[in-house]
Design brief:
Shape: globular
Distance between the termini: 37 Å
Structural class: mainly beta
Helix content: under 10%
Oligomer: single chain
Number of helices: 0
Strand content: over 45%
Radius of gyration: 13 Å
Largest sheet: 7 strands, mixed
Order of helices and strands: EEEEEEEEEEE
């Protein structure tokens, strides 16, 4: 499994971004899919999880109601829709499927 994130960038407070993570073999993959984020001074934070079998979702309290994780098997892609972004959302975001992680992509939110 390879994973490659895209869609990051810089936005102002209250803006929106959608991250994409393209991989391969999603159709038969029953692993949970996750998005993490990390800043230079903090430990990695699990932001969102999409269950691999029932596709239930879980979110960190810090993003609940603002972020949405989803997947498309036909496009081999897992998404993270982020709305009402805040400066504290600034971080490197990583997608994770099974034991694989992407390289990460930067999201910066300015005031």
């Amino acid at each position: 499994v390879y994973l490659e994130e895209s869609g990051g960038g810089s936005v102002h407070f209250g803006g929106s971004l959608t991250l994409s993570c393209v991989g391969n073999g999603f159709a038969g993959n029953k692993n949970d899919m996750r998005w993490y984020r990390q800043t230079p001074v903090n430990d990695p934070e699990l932001v969102a999880t999409l269950g691999g079998v029932i596709w239930g979702t879980e979110y960190a309290d810090s993003v609940k109601g603002r972020f949405t994780i989803s997947r498309s098997n036909s496009k081999n892609t897992v998404y993270l829709q982020m709305t009402n972004l805040k400066p504290e959302d600034t971080a490197m975001y990583f997608c994770n499927v099974g034991t694989k992680f992407g390289q990460g992509i930067q999201v910066t939110v300015s005031t």
